[in-house]
Amino acid sequence: MSSILSPLNLAAVPAQDEALREPIRAFLRDALNDVPMVMRARGVCEADPHFSRKLAEQKLIGLCLPAEHGGGGRSYFSRFVLVEELLIQGAPAAAHWVNDRQTGPLLLRFGSPAQRDYFMPRMLASEVFFCIGMSEPDTGSDLASVRTRAVRTEDGRWRLNGRKIWTSNGHYSHYMCALVRTSGSLEDRHKGLSQMIVDLSLPGVTVRPIKDLADDEHFCEVLFEDVLLPADALIGEEGSGFKQVTSELSYERSGPDRIYSAMVLIEGWLAELRSIDNPGMAVTALLGRIAGRLAVLRGMSLAVAHKLDRGEHVDLEAALVKDLGTEFEQAVPGWIAQALELTHDHPPSAALRETLAYITQICPSFSLRGGTRQILRGIIARGLGLR
User: pTM to 2 decimals?
Assistant: First the structure.
């Protein structure tokens, strides 16, 4: 615990990575010039393969992946800058998001040379897209309760049966990185779990989009019925899936994407607030609350990027950033609604009202992505030696 409570050494984006910001902004201004605010508020939940390919043409996918595998060979701070700008502008980046954020690093760390050679160039070019197969019905964030099972066949292949749920953009993806049980039973918990690459075009795979409260179809249910996977579908060592997926989730939980989900709404509100000469002390206090919390969370996320850049494990730190970050994200629409009530003499635009309504509808999901708060707090408690 002493290391967590030691004096804070603030990380900062190095100058060479900060220099990426303006070219990225210029690219996004051109790409998103005519996109309405409420559509940009959907941000990285929206999949646009054409946009992802344009980003790949700019060499902006895989910035911190090794150059020998086609990446940019830069530090984790470079991707931090990119992700900040994508989220603030509300870019429709969901198609390649999993590739860049976690599946690419996962394959580099645990994948075979053949898997890396085949998938990495295609992922970096946005020619193929991955989704994540973790959660299942009746298990949610308790990944040790996974029931989907892959069994070896006589010819060395894997026969896959089971079901995944809340699979973001499964209907746009070509492959799934799935956590499955390859030995043992449910009572074995995390023992016997492995990760597999699943080609979603194979016979026996069914992908069903699930509509949410906002009438979007980002989530999917994916069913596997006697799906035959090749022998080399296994990622890493058989039975090491839980360790691997914990490492993978650190990438998912630590970045600014667990802080900035409501940034298009914040930016839209600020743009209209600037036209009010004297919004009042209460509104100014709300603005200070948002800015203060955002600054602290950004500093925490930068510190995690610094640790990742040094090759350190960040399971505990990533869980803290994700837990506190989603708490902030979910509070933002309520704070802005309160601020708009306090400036009723200056009614908001229709675009801002529509964007506020959308974020209010969708914000309950912020604390579900990447693990529920209850699961995260269990990880935090264990990391601090409290359980």
Answer: 0.88
